[in-house]
Amino acid sequence: MQQRELEVFQNLRGDNMIRIKDMKEEGKKVVGIYCAFCPSELVLAADAIPVSLCGTKEEPIPAAEKDLPRNLCPLIKSSYGFAITDTCPFFYYSDVIIGETTCDGKKKMFELMENLKPVHVMQLPHRKNSDASMALWVEEIRELRKYLEKQLQVKITDDAIWKAVDLRNQERRAIKGICDLNKMDPAPLTGLELLTIVWAKGFSADKNSSIKMLNELKSSIMGEKNDHQKLQRYKPRRPRVLLTGCPTGMGSEKVIRLVEELGASVVALENCSSYKTLDLLVSTEKEDPIEALAESYLKIPCSCMSPNEYRFELIDSMIQEFSADMVIDLTWQACHTYNIEAHYVEKLVKDKGLPYLHLESDYSNSDLEILKVRIEATLEMVK
Hints:
Belongs to the FldB/FldC dehydratase alpha/beta subunit family. Keywords: Iron, Iron-sulfur, Metal-binding. With 383 residues, the chain is α/β, with parallel strands linked by helices. It has two domains: 3-156, Rossmann fold, CATH 3.40.50.11890; 161-379, Rossmann fold (3-Layer(aba) Sandwich). Helices cover 51% and strands 11% of the residues. It has helices spanning 3-10, 12-25, 40-45, 61-64, 74-85, 89-93, 104-113, 131-152, 158-180, 191-200, 207-223, 225-232, 254-261, 289-297, 309-321, 336-351, 368-379; strands at residues 29-33, 48-52, 96-100, 119-122, 240-245, 265-269, 326-332, 356-361. Strands 2-1-3-4 form a four-stranded parallel sheet, with helices on both faces. Strands 6-5-7-8 form a four-stranded parallel sheet, with helices on both faces.
């Protein structure tokens, strides 16, 4: 991948920050989102800008620990720290915040955050396959629609929702198209390049523009495919690694860096900031767009769901499709649901005869050497 193309995505967050500032001055509304379960189609249908606010850096954590326990998940502490220190421009520009009850730590953090911004918390059912869960989730999305209409002083029509559904489906297809390029061997994108591209999507001020950029990037890489494979023909094959587990973003990418510094290739990211939601297109066959949104979003295979079979089916298929030689399962400190699911992921991977490594860490660099030794030892098991 050419450096100039990657720089476009590296700069996207900063460029969109400036655009959002200008658009805010023109009266545009911004809605901060912390989770994949929030149906951003409703935000788009309200003619507002959805932005991702999940904290992925260590710097604001000390400030957060004045209010939050030190042994809490670093994603929660980083997110809250950015909010209370006013060091995240996207939080600053957000008119409202949408939270969700994916874990106990986040839902209590949202209670504290209400002192800073208007916050609406969606009550997520944790069992997918029941009529009661679907009914609850449909009602929660209807409540979100009403909340956005009231807070943003707009009317969200069904037609506007369907247009937003089409736009977001296009975006999912475009991102999946980029991710699926790494099914090639050798993979055309490094793990860091892949992370940079998929992470940048959360800060887009113009979905049409970002979709166009993603499709152009895919075409460019496909055009370089033959030359790329010729150049790689006489190089040693790099072990192909599937990274699964908790969300990873720029600032918390240390495991990806270590893997690639040790000579392997992170070919796919299963987590919710990447591949996990990309196949879950919202159906356009239903009469009610709210029911269509509910049906799609309730399928997200987050570890908060119990049971969570689809996640293991997804990992199984990704191992095959991306020709993974090993799996690394990353759990952030105090994320109990992903920590427990590691038991099932390990069994799945080992039943396939592949090396498996479960890592539990936080956003600091204090354990870099330990992580390096463990990753290197597991890579030696790759046949």
